[in-house]
Each structure stands twice: as C-alpha cells, then as structure tokens.
Design brief:
Length: 235
Amino acid sequence: MTINDFIQETKKLGIELDNNILEKLNEYYIFLTEYNMHTNLTRIIEKEDVYLKHFYDSILVTKYFDFNNCSSLLDIGTGAGFPGVVLALLFPNIKVTLLDSNSKKTTFLELLKEKLNINNIEIVHARAEDYAKLNQEKYDVCISRSVAFLDIIVGLSMPFIKKDGIIILMKGILNDELKLLNNNFKQIGIKEYKINNYYLYNNEDERNIIILSKENNIPILSYPQLLKRHSKLIK
C-alpha cells in the first residue's frame, strides 16, 4: 500500500489525515524499523507493508465502531502499539492505556510516546490478569489485536470494561476459535457479539473484528479454568 493509497483508503472510512498525523505516522514507521534492528518488535518492516498491515489495519476498526463516543480505551497486548497508538493519534480526546507484559516492547513505547509527543497515552508493563486486580470496570472500550484465543482474551478483557462497555477483538481467520467462544458464552459473561468479516486490501488477508457487549447481571470472574489452559496469554 503506497502512502497515497493509504490516504485515499482512509478517507473512504470518513477519516481525513492531516499533515500532522501523516508526519507522526512517518516518524513512527522510521523509529519502529530502526528500533526493530536491535529489538524484535515486528516481522513486518517494509514501508508499504507497515502502512497496510499495521497502520491501515489499526484504522479499519473505525469502520465498525464509533470511537467519538469513547473516553477511555485499553489496548491489551499492544506489542509495538497497534492499534492503540494509531487510535490515540486519530482520537486525541481518548485516554489510551497500552498494556503489555513484554518489557522490551513497553520500553519502545515509552520512547515512542516521547518522540511523537503523544499526551493521551499511558503505558503499563504488566500481565493483564495482574493489572485487572486494581483496574476493574475502568474502561469504555477494551481492544486487542491478534492476542490469545478468543475465549481467553475475552476472559482477560471482561473485568476491565464498565457495565456498558465494549470489547473489540481484531483477529485473522477464526477457524475453531469461535467454537471455543460459543462454548463459554454465558460463563464468560457476554451479553451479545457481532462478527465483522472483511479483507484488508485488494481482497487479500482475511480479517475479523468481533465486537462484544457485557452481560451486566453477571459478576466479574477470575476465569481460572480458562487461564489454566494457556500459560502464555499475551503475545
């Protein structure tokens, strides 16, 4: 995806990228690829691929959810900052928390925050289940991109969102993951969910965005039976 393609495709989503945002995204790309030379952050390093598979993919979620009504967002397993950093640039009124258990990635994010002068970002180095202990029902939206199995990431996300909050999961091909979610639907505390299937660009790279709402009558659970199944929950 060329820069011009990126701008035009983003415009189709109803988002006009001004020069300030475009400059910061370019700085983001340069810093990401330079940092990646000594610290593994991503296998995607070609400029056209970064703009397509990281930047544009992060922005595409706005097609399925209106972030203008969101004031607080938690990005679980944010890695190198996708989609949290990109959404923070687009929506400066949202307080964005970037959560990751990998200290090398949170160190990169701290440097990135300073370099791009992003004031609406908080970076937390912790495991989700630990951070949840003192941050229950704190966020309007909890989002994650390609993190863990569906039932696991929903279980990790559920304690963070407010009673009327939303969980957004950005995934690739689902395969049998949906079956895992359906098997634990009531147990996890989901009220309802919707799956949005699409292809990233030029009919390539299948993606799914799952948007879930919380069943407010069900108390926050620790989900020990889910957590035991996977010792490594966050990428």
